[in-house]
Design goal:
Elements (H helix, E strand, L loop, with lengths): L1 H8 L14 H10 L5 E8 L7 E9 L6 E7 L19 E3 L2 E3 L3 H16 L10 E7 L10 H6 L8 E3 L10 E6 L1 E10 L3 E2 L9 H19 L7 E2 L4 E7 L8 E2 L2 E10 L5 H19 L2 E10 L10 H14 L4 E5 L5 H6 L4 E2 L14 E3 H20 L1
Parallel strand pairs: 3-6, 3-7, 7-17, 8-16, 11-16
Antiparallel strand pairs: 1-2, 2-6, 4-5, 5-18, 9-14, 9-15, 10-13, 12-14
This protein binds zinc ion (ZN).
Length: about 400
């Protein structure tokens, strides 16, 4: 497992839009390790930013006797390394130290690539009297998923009889299973006033002042309109956070005519994103009247969550039983604020479960995977394959 992980980390797999060349070389390398499966299908899609680059997806399967496949879905792409000075080692030269492997993409999502490969590799095809065993290695999770999991779902590679496990989020103890994700909305607010000299504010409209007054009111209104709590989610409320903010003026004695900020909104699934936008528009209109500034709202990203995956029945039971038998901990279902490939399945009406051991160093410098976590995950998935595919 350490050797395959190390070989993989030496091959960067960064999206063209982030300055990389995609996952093709990494996919070629992984495909060489997928021996002994009944079928290994490669589904490439053209990159929509750089049409010269193909984004690869791999579907490997060992056929069972009954309908349906138990899929483990892992993504091959990674985010860029970031500032190299923050790294203690070369992000693309794996280092094994103190039970960990350091390198970009080791935890996110290399851990799942390796655990699913080793959980499925040694199961004899002849033993599969029930469902099929499948692993899906997909592209483009870190940016849009349009050329990855969404591409596969839209083209009908999955069916209602399938089971989906997405090991792309977890807790160190493995005690939570993500069965739901919040709705995500990014809004940008551009406030246009009128610039003037700092000594004569009455001759202009201070966009900064109008914008921050509006923002304070907006956060309070969001809290009033969308107050519900759901203890299954972490955190249990909808969150409305101002995040990015552009500079106003270069000098202190000018009243700024423009002010721009963005919000990251993660709402409980029961709230509709259109209703949130409507509240923002209403509060903006009120402040336009009050201050004379113009407030334009632009949607930067929207991501509606699908329905909550079922926490009843044989599939969910086999997952929690497998986790308990390997880790000794009986996990609980939870909802999270992040967004994984699982949500694309949920939007299509499928149940999908996100689970792995770990979480913490992804996307940052000095990313690492705990070798024990990789092994624990592989044991859990092997146990689950045994329950659902062997008998
Ligand atoms: Zn990931």
């Amino acid at each position: 497992m350490i050797n395959v992980m190390s070989e993989m980390i030496r091959i960067p797999a960064i999206a063209p839009i982030n300055g990389g060349t995609g996952e093709t070389k990494r996919a070629d390398m992984l495909e060489r390790y997928l021996e002994g499966y009944d079928s290994v299908i490669r589904v490439d899609s053209r990159d929509d930013h750089d049409p010269g680059v193909m984004r690869p997806n791999i579907l490997a399967r060992k056929n069972g006797k009954e309908k349906g496949t138990v899929w483990i879905v892992a993504h091959m792409d990674t985010v860029p390394a970031g500032n190299l000075e923050d790294w203690e080692t070369d992000p693309f030269e794996p280092v094994v130290k103190d039970g960990k492997i350091y390198g970009r993409g080791t935890e996110d999502n290399g851990q799942a690539i390796i655990s699913s490969m080793f959980a499925s590799k040694f199961i004899p095809k002849e033993a599969l009297s029930k469902r099929s065993v499948g692993i899906a290695y997909v592209a483009d999770e870190e940016t849009t998923s349009r050329m990855g999991i969404e591409y596969l779902i839209k083209r009908g590679y999955f069916s209602d009889d399938d089971v989906f496990i997405v090991p792309d989020w977890g807790t160190p103890e493995g005690d939570l299973i993500d069965v739901a994700e919040k709705n995500l909305l990014w809004l940008q607010f551009s406030v246009t006033g009128k610039s003037t000299h700092g000594s004569t504010p009455e001759k202009g409209i201070n966009a900064f002042k109008a914008g921050t007054g509006f923002l304070t009111d907006l956060i309070a209104e969001f809290g009033k309109e969308f107050p519900r709590e759901d203890c299954m989610f972490r955190p249990g409320v909808s969150t409305f956070e101002p995040t990015k903010c552009a500079g106003t003026v270069m000098n202190v004695n000018t009243i700024p005519g423009n002010f721009e900020f963005s919000m990251d909104i993660r709402a409980l699934p029961e709230y509709r994103l259109d209703d949130i936008v409507a509240v923002a528009e209403r509060v903006a209109e009120k402040h336009e009247k009050k201050t004379g500034a113009r407030i334009d709202i632009r949607e930067l990203q929207r991501h509606d969550s699908g329905r909550i995956s079922s926490t009843r029945g044989a599939v969910f039971d086999s997952l929690i039983d497998s986790i308990e038998s390997v880790t000794g901990v009986r996990p609980k279902p939870a909802g999270i604020g992040g967004a994984t490939c699982a949500n694309f399945f949920r939007k299509e009406g499928y149940d999908a479960y996100v689970w792995e051991c770990g979480g913490g160093t992804l996307h940052g410098p000095n990313e690492y995977v705990m070798i024990d976590n990789m092994v624990t995950d592989a044991k859990v998935f092997a146990s689950m394959f045994y329950k659902l595919c062997v008998g």
